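Reopening this ticket.

The earlier resolution said the output was attached, but the attachment link was broken on my side. Pasting everything inline this time so it's all in one place.
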Amino acid sequence: MKRIVDVMMQIEPMGLNQVPVLIPEIRKLAGLPKDEFDRQMFQLAKDEIIYMDRHAHPGQMTDKEWGEYLVDRFGQVFVVAIFRKDAAEKIAALENLVDRMPVEPDQAQTDEPVRKPGKGGKRPGAGRKTGTRVVSDSEKRVKLNGVRIPAWLNDWLKSRGMAGELITQALIRQHGLTPPV
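Inline output:
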């Protein structure tokens, strides 16, 4: 953990003044294996030495970005690390420690696959309901004069013009209707 603290100070010398440091930069310079880096970052957060800020819209991230940032077992994506105000005293205590206890299981990363936000989940009621299916663009329905019709039919009617008149004529022919006089 001392190595990560040193790297953060190297990247941002004013880091103890709560200046954010990008996690991918820390990861690159620390040179630690991914699992060890992640474990140490979560331990620093648990020890209240750093605060990690989450990504506002993780669903917009690319797969490459998912690998660079720090992701917890709940799918929360952390992009920056910030030293807490009282971090200096805690960092000094780190210098005297040779080894740290492993992170408790509730804070450790698990072997479970990371769920991206917006992709359903294990929560009760989450995900697509049984028996539902994804509707293709051609099957989607749009409103036309208060009636929902397939999008492809709407496009065809618009290309012909006077959609209401075309529908009226088709219904009269198909069902043998007689319009009132």
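Reporter confirms the inline version is readable. Strands lie at 21-22, 50-54, 70-71, 77-83, 141-144, 147-150. The first strand starts at residue 21 and ends at 22.
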